[in-house]
Design a protein that fits this description.
Length: 210
């Protein structure tokens, strides 16, 4: 599986996740969690701006449109691409650190997914969800974080526009290690969408019962 396809899939499923939140689960808790995801997302952009020599002109998180406005990177072509996909790596790092140091490795988070097998890709979110035990506080922490993992990990449409020349090239590149790591991000977003659909159905049943 090409790196370009993995990035597009992460972006598409991240968009689905964000849409479900805003249209079906738009409440104070979700909005608060959204800003946690947005903070990780935009901070990831900002770190890569610094590392690639792109001067940051604006850093906004707590608004309807969180964003990092920056000048061109000093690394032509490559710099803009690294800045655009930074949230994938930054978001995964954040979740791995939370799991390691706050949750005590309560969850088994894979470092890669077998990119040769669609069966493995589709099984990843269920393998993660099966580890959830709602009687344990660690599960609640991860579930709440997952509700906005789409905003945390998923590059925006603007991010893809900023890197489109490199994106075309990435469709021609196969890297098992990077693709496998990207599919971990995709699996977490898919797990999030399953949780969102379950929450939407639960809310519908509660309202119907009144």
């Amino acid at each position: 599986m090409s790196l370009g396809l993995v990035i597009v899939l992460i972006t598409a499923f991240g968009y689905i996740s964000n849409t479900l939140n805003w249209r079906c689960l738009n409440c104070r808790v979700i909005r608060f969690l959204y800003y946690i995801g947005a903070l990780v997302h935009e901070t990831s952009h900002a770190v890569l701006c610094v590392l690639t020599g792109a001067k940051i002109e604006e850093f906004t998180v707590f608004s309807d449109q969180p964003r990092v406005v920056h000048r061109k990177s000093k690394l032509p072509f490559l710099g803009e691409s690294l800045i655009s996909i930074a949230p994938i790596a930054g978001g995964l790092l954040f979740l791995f650190l939370i799991n390691r140091y706050l949750l005590g490795n309560y969850f088994v988070l894979p470092l890669a997914v077998d990119w040769h097998s669609w069966k493995s890709v589709l099984a990843t979110p269920f393998e993660f969800l099966l580890q959830i035990d709602l009687l344990q506080w660690q599960s609640w922490v991860m579930v709440l974080l997952l509700f906005n993992v789409g905003a945390m990990l998923g590059p925006s449409a603007q991010d893809l526009k900023n890197m489109w020349p490199m994106l075309i090239l990435l469709f021609l590149i196969n890297s098992p290690a990077l693709a496998g790591l990207g599919l971990v991000a995709l699996g977490l977003i898919m797990a999030n969408i399953i949780l969102q659909i379950a929450a939407i159905l639960l809310l519908w049943l509660v309202r119907s019962a009144r």
